[in-house]
Inverse folding.
């Protein structure tokens, strides 16, 4: 854990906050960790050294495996940003989308192209603080294609995942 530093982004904007589409922190060497210079080489700078906390507050966090980013690409003529959620899914970061959850996504492109990733062991409601407890997972997922002709009334009314 570390205290958030005041940093300057590559455009010269001073930040004391996390900003979309991302904020990179140029970390200092700490303990056995020697960070690369990739972040500072891209223009991220800080005025002072970072304060690290080697003895954080002890906490027990319940395990709640879930996939933070899941969905299908929208029909688009341009590139698509995967950070904001869309009706076709995306970076939903919802801790309730875990084991046993059913999600419905509209298919807008040929082949569907289902994608999922950004797995978490746990997180709060969204990644409001910028992160969850990230992990890799291996799981069994059931994918069912429901043709529009087979929709029941409530499925025809869905306009979100």
């Amino acid at each position: 854990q570390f205290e958030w530093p005041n940093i300057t982004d590559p455009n010269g904007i001073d930040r004391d906050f996390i900003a979309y589409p991302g904020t990179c922190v140029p970390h200092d060497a700490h303990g056995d960790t020697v960070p690369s210079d990739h972040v500072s080489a891209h223009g991220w700078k800080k005025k002072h050294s970072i304060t690290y906390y080697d003895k954080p507050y002890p906490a027990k966090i319940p395990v709640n495996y879930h996939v933070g980013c899941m969905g299908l690409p929208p029909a688009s003529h341009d590139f698509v940003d995967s950070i904001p959620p869309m009706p076709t899914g995306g970076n939903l970061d919802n801790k309730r989308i875990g084991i046993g959850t059913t999600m419905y996504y509209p298919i807008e492109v040929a082949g569907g192209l289902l994608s999922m990733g950004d797995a978490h062991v746990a997180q709060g409601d969204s990644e409001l603080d910028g992160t969850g407890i990230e992990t890799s997972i291996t799981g069994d997922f059931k994918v069912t294609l429901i043709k529009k002709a087979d929709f029941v009334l409530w499925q025809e009314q869905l306009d979100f995942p």
In short: The mean pLDDT is 86. The longest strand covers residues 115-122.
